[in-house]
Amino acid sequence: MYNGIIKPKPDLLEDSYLNLKKVLKRINPKFILLDFDHFPETRLMTLVAKDLEIPTIEIQHGIYSKGKLFSGYYVDYVFVWGEYFKNLYLESKIKEDQKICILGYPYDIHVQENMKYDKKIVFLGQPFELYGDSFLEQKIDVVKNLDGLCRGNGFEFVYKPHRMEDLDLLKRELPHVEFYSKTEKIKDTIKKNDIFISFNSTALIEAALNSRICLQLNIFNLNTDDFEKIGICRSFTNLSEFDDFLKDVSSADDLKRFYYPVNSNFIEIPLPNPGEKLVDIIKHIL
């Protein structure tokens, strides 16, 4: 299909459509679940499914900001994480109310009853360089400063790279920074660490839901929600505020008071679990 787009060759696109249609006819699914509908292959899937009258459902994959909804245009239904995201879709007029269902956070979480924190901080990287070289330069400067501030306040600092970041480049530019492997699963990183910082990574929210102390560093010139205002975690707009926070934490006997539970209007926790909630919603709408 991509060859048909790049060349461009309409006959290849038509072949992709017909081949997928043949496969779906043979499988005859009751519905189709997607995590995005804006890629060419998922748009093709929704087109063929519509022709075959197979309902399509998109489950929210990451964080969406006001005015920047880029998915959910082509599927029949959108399952979102909470009331906040449902309202984003309603305000954008992409979907009608009956086509938007609140599923809640679709992954397993493990809330700790007896929370214990150590002085170790993980920076959750994001591929800002995709927006331009200047963002890469800013990211490197920010990480250098973060590493210095953490060391100066008695904290370990580790960088967890995003799968789309150039880890070799980062290691060359940041020789004194410790890195986790790109292949390490985020759930394992969250399990063995205590405090997480990022710009607006979805993994930061996952860490907050798993009872970790999370901090948004909102200092990049990119549009995003203020995580503190919508009830996810503390948010800082400069490194001085972050330094003050580290000083407070380093002198505290009990770090639990620095943890902020995620606002349930932003993200609901599906009951009894994501799988059963998903099945119940699908039974109701189809």
How is this structure best summarized?
The chain has about 290 residues and is α/β, with parallel strands linked by helices. The chain has helices spanning about 1-5, 10-25, 40-50, 85-90, 135-150, 165-175, 185-190, 200-210, 240-250, 275-285, and strands at about 30-35, 55-60, 75-80, 100, 120-125, 155-160, 180, 195-200, 215, 235. The strands form two sheets. A six-stranded parallel sheet has the order 7-6-5-8-9-10, with helices on both faces. The chain has a four-stranded parallel sheet with strand order 1-2-3-4, covered by helices on one side.
Shape: globular
Strand percentage, roughly?
A: 5-15%
- CATH homologous superfamily name of the largest domain? Glycogen Phosphorylase B
- Order of helix and strand elements from N to C terminus: HHEHEEHEEHEHEHEHEEHH
Q: Radius of gyration in whole Å, from Cα?
A: 21 Å
- The helix content, as a percent range, equals 25-40%
Q: Report low-confidence residues grouped into runs of 5 or more.
A: none
CATH class of the largest domain: Alpha Beta
Major sheet summary line:
6 strands, parallel
Strand order of the largest sheet: 7-6-5-8-9-10
The total domain count is 2
Helix and strand content put the structural class at alpha/beta
CATH topology of the largest domain: Rossmann fold
How would you state the average pLDDT, rounded?
A: 89
N- and C-termini, Cα separation: 30 Å
**Name of the CATH architecture of the largest domain:** 3-Layer(aba) Sandwich
- Strands, total number: 10
Tally of helical segments: 10
Model description:
With 286 residues, the protein is an alpha/beta fold. The protein folds into two domains: 2-106 and 270-285, Glycogen Phosphorylase B (Rossmann fold); 120-258, 3-Layer(aba) Sandwich (Rossmann fold), CATH 3.40.50. It is 38% helix and 13% strand. It is built from ten helices and ten strands. A six-stranded parallel β-sheet has the order 7-6-5-8-9-10, sandwiched between helices. Helix 2 crosses helix 3 (40-51). The longest helix is centred in the middle third of the chain and has 20 residues, at 133-152.
